[in-house]
């Protein structure tokens, strides 16, 4: 008999769907795997208001394949100008979180926050209305090595922020270091982290040994193997502070394989299968459901999904390339064989 596992239907608590002609690909892939997704607002220009988020939500809804249930959960992008009134309006229009991108930290973060002090009134309002704060946790100053940027962000910004707003719910997004896992594990209640499939499956050797592989390049950048091990440990620990966020981030093929390639890995095509791979390798498949389907909604104060998905152990090869609105898109692990397949 084929081995199989059945899980409560999962959600993705961090995804990039982009806009326009990309939506057919990105929304279709996300909706095949997940019931809900936290949709990142780093469009060009970014989604900075409740009104902008509502309009973006409509564009996403228009691309949900027939017969699928998919609920996009909307987020606004914090800038130096985001004030309490912007937060109040966004909250009233159904936006559930706001995203902090330190200016210059990652893809489309140019309009991000230059000094955390600039958004203290916004954070105050978020704390009182219950809006979540999602954080791309890296410092951006040129004196800090790219491999240390997450760790330094904890010391310089995050540790203080979570204490200055003691009841603000904070998600440290796409953590990549043992330092971040430890910080979150020991942090006060209301602080959690998302972990990507690629940071569980890979480390910087995969990106840099034997040739430079641009499809592994994302931010925060892949770290050493010992950090990867710490992330696997956290994700499979059963701690409700760690949950699934793919950070699936599409960039057309020609922008990845380029002399100045873009940061981001496209994992939405096979996300839950990639996570299953990582959990199986750790001997912790029994911990996948908590991480993928329970701890996220619990943290956000939303109901858990009621239906289920089934994965069968049946090796299959990922396609070499996908189409995204007429452009070639290379999925992470293109051409590689995965052991688990979503039915
Ligand atoms: N993770 C990435 O490398 N890229 C993301 C932005 C982000 O989440 O930092 C993107 O939008 O392309
Ligand atoms: Zn990010
Ligand atoms: Zn992201």
Q: What's the SSE blueprint?
A:
Layout: E1 4-8, E2 12-15, H1 23-33, E3 36-39, H2 50-61, E4 71-77, H3 84-92, E5 97-100, H4 120-129, E6 132-135, H5 149-164, E7 170-172, H6 178-186, E8 191-195, H7 197-201, H8 204-208, H9 225-235, E9 242-244, H10 253-256, H11 271-281, H12 288-300, E10 308-317, E11 322-324, E12 327-329, E13 337-342
Parallel strand pairs: 2-3, 3-4, 4-5, 5-6, 6-7, 7-8, 8-9
Antiparallel strand pairs: 1-10, 10-13, 11-12
Helix pairs in contact: 3-4, 6-9
Residues 106, 136, 173-174, 219 line the site of one zinc ion.
Structural commentary:
34% of the residues lie in helices and 18% in strands. The protein is of the alpha/beta class and 343 residues long. Strands 2-3-4-5-6-7-8-9 form an eight-stranded parallel β-sheet. Strands 1-10-13 form a three-stranded antiparallel β-sheet. Helix 3 packs parallel to helix 4 and helix 6 packs parallel to helix 9. The chain is globular. Bound molecules: N-carbamoyl-L-aspartate and zinc ion (2 copies). Substrate binds at residues 16-18, 42, 136, 219, 251, 263. Homodimer.
- Amount of beta strand: 15-25%
Alpha plus pi helix count: 12
The side-by-side strand order for the widest beta sheet comes to 2-3-4-5-6-7-8-9
Largest sheet: 8 strands, parallel
Order of helices and strands: EEHEHEHEHEHEHEHHHEHHHEEEE
Assembly form of the protein: single chain
Q: How helical, in percent, are the residues?
A: 25-40%
Cofactor: Zn(2+)
Domain Amidohydrolase-related: 12-305
Binding site for substrate: 16-18, 42, 136, 219, 251, 263
Protein name: Dihydroorotase
């Amino acid at each position: 008999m084929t081995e199989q596992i059945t899980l409560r239907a999962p959600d993705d608590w961090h995804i990039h769907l982009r806009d326009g002609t990309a939506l057919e690909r990105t929304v279709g892939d996300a909706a095949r795997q997940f019931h809900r997704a936290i949709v990142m607002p780093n469009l060009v220009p970014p989604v900075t208001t409740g009104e902008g988020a509502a309009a973006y939500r409509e564009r996403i809804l228009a691309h949900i394949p027939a017969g699928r249930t998919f609920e996009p959960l909307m987020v606004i992008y914090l800038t130096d100008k985001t004030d309490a009134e912007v937060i109040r309006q966004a909250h009233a229009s159904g936006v559930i979180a706001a995203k902090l991108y330190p200016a210059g930290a990652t893809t489309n973060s140019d309009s991000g926050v230059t000094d955390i002090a600039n958004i203290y009134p916004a954070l105050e309002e978020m704390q009182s209305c219950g809006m979540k704060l999602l954080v791309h946790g890296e410092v951006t100053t040129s004196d800090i090595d790219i491999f240390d940027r997450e760790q330094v962000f904890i010391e310089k910004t995050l540790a203080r922020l979570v204490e200055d707003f003691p009841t603000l719910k904070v998600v440290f997004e796409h953590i990549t270091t043992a330092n971040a896992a430890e910080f979150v594990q020991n942090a006060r209640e209301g602080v959690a982290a998302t972990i990507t499939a690629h940071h569980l499956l890979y480390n910087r050797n995969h990106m840099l040994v034997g040739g430079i592989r641009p499809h592994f390049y994302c931010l925060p950048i892949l770290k050493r193997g010992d950090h990867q091990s710490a992330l696997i440990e956290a994700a499979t620990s059963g701690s409700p502070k760690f949950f699934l966020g793919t950070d699936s981030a599409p960039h057309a093929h020609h922008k990845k394989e380029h002399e100045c390639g873009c940061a981001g890995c496209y994992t939405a095509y096979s996300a839950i299968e990639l996570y299953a791979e990582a959990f199986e390798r750790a001997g912790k498949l029994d911990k996948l459901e908590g991480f993928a389907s329970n701890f996220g909604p619990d943290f956000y104060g939303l109901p858990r999904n009621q239906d289920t998905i089934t994965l069968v152990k049946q090796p299959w090869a990922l396609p070499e390339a996908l189409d995204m609105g007429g452009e070639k898109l290379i999925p992470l692990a293109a051409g590689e064989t995965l052991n688990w397949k979503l039915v």
